[in-house]
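pipeline/complex-builder :: batch 7 item 3
reading input block
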Amino acid sequence: MIEIKNLHKSYEMGANSLHVLKGINFSVKDGELVAIMGSSGSGKSTLLNILGMLDTADAGTYHLDNIKIANMDETKAANYRNKFLGFVFQSFNLINYKDALENVALPLYYQGLPRKDRQKVGLEYLDKVGLKEWSDHLPSELSGGQKQRVAIARAMASNPKVLLADEPTGALDSTTSREVMALIQRINNEGKTILVVTHENDIANMCKRIVHLKDGIIVEDKKIKQNIIKDV
Amino acid sequence: MNSLKKIFDRDTWDEIFESISKNRTRTVITTIGVFWGIFIYIALAGSATGLENGFDQAFSGISKNSMGFWAQSRSIPYKGYEEGSRPIFKISDVDYIQQRIPEIEYISPGHQLGAFSGSAPIVVRGTKTDNFNIFGNYPNYATITVKKLFDGGRWINDEDMRLERKVAIIGEGTRDRLFEIDEDPIGKYIKINDINFKVVGIHKYSQSSGFGSDGDIYIPFTTFAKVYNTGDDFGFMFISGYDYVNPEYLETVVLDNLKLRKNVSPDDGRAFGSFNIGALFESIIKFSRGMVFLSLVVGIATIFAGVIGIGNIMLIAVKERTNELGIRRAIGATPGEVRVQIILEMVFLTILAGLIGIIVGSMLLFLINIGTASLEDFPFTNPTVPLLIVFGAFTTMITLGTLIGFIPAERAVSIKPIDALREE
């Protein structure tokens, strides 16, 4: 599903150049649930941004579902993001003046789906995350866990190939974190490929594979026994 | 361009309405600028038109480039004439002036008694009697001063002049004071200084003609000359120029020629009296045209300022919505879609504000019109703004709105989605 080879990325910081990714080789198969771990500054968010086409690499290749991702203008990148990727952010990033259903249906708007279909699909996904009753609530009327579930529903709504989650539990307490991770596990069990960036071990242990980043290179890449959440 | 199609897409507008209606404070503040601009513009331009119409109506009773001249006394001794001596107009002077000044359309010598000098003669009808001013005029006098007559009557004609007929055109006031209420004076006789005159017409009194009164009685020039034994002399003359003639110029030329003809020093400013309705009217017309122009300039400038204001607030709004726009782009909005949304939001706000401004401005004009309708002395009629100008202002607004909309739109697009998402 994801195939990256020898990926490099540096940032210009005034006169200095900061080499963040120093040759990443990494592949993800269909249906995997991968945790990308590392301390801050390890390059894990940069990697996720490049995977999410929000940022571009300086060198190296990136294939998503056998499509080469390179030399894209913003319009093409936007279309690819819309079709292939779903994003979940630490700070939820819901649009605060749209209610839950409208937020979930927004990617479908940019896909050009008619309004009725958008409502229908949006409601389906809200139902999947258990928030059908909350469809007409604004983000400000939802709890943190509910907001993140709406965000996950939104990421899922366009039926992407890969779900990218950047510290999805970073702003949540442990109980809510478990709820959200349980949802992620369930979606993964339904066959979706998911990448989770985190620096928390217990969150990483809820995934099926852990990739450790340190100073811009992968220092460890192992399959683990998944800690399956049952009690939610 | 794919994003152009979005303009006609209902979903695009739903998004815009949502963004506008859910950011109400911003919307209201944004629109006030343009609203104010177009409101001021409509109110000013309408008032200027109303003023122009009002003056036009106030002067409808008079030829718009006419002027009058009369003889006073010399203030400078000249060619043997002493200071204080009076130049006297002769009939032959009329031909002289007419021949030398081709810009004159009509020239009408006249006599008067009671209006400027002399005492108003006694006029008798049966048992009723009163004093009225008497004028002796040429037929063309009615053309210059635009005399309106009641139906059934007529003005002085050439036959009256030739035969020195004793006919009179009386005023509304004369009729009311000398005749019974339901009596038709036409064909009846009145006695002016014991001489019988047949009433042939009644003129409508128009306050705006600026001189004369509702009791004035007009008789043929020749008849007046005979009755009062004035010979070839006469007291005043009315002159009107062709439409293209500058009234101030005409007045100067006529005075110069009169001075030459009547042996008056070229430097003598007091030998002849004159009043220039044309010049007065022209300065009023210039004034109201200036008002229209001023309102155009002020209005356009205010609209411009308003649109820039909208652009300014949209820039801030874009900054405020950086995160939102980043989210939109992360989940698939193309730069074109974001750009179209920002520009359409701005154009829509501009149009909305403009429409409200036009409506409120028109309402104000309507109220002013009603309020001033009963004020006779206030020259204000029918304050309208030509549709073409409204349309022009509207087009200017939309064009400006679109052009200035590009600034925030480009700014919104220039922020990378990843940077936009980091913004909190």
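note: The CA atoms of residues 31 and 352 of chain B lie 8 Å apart.
queue -> next item
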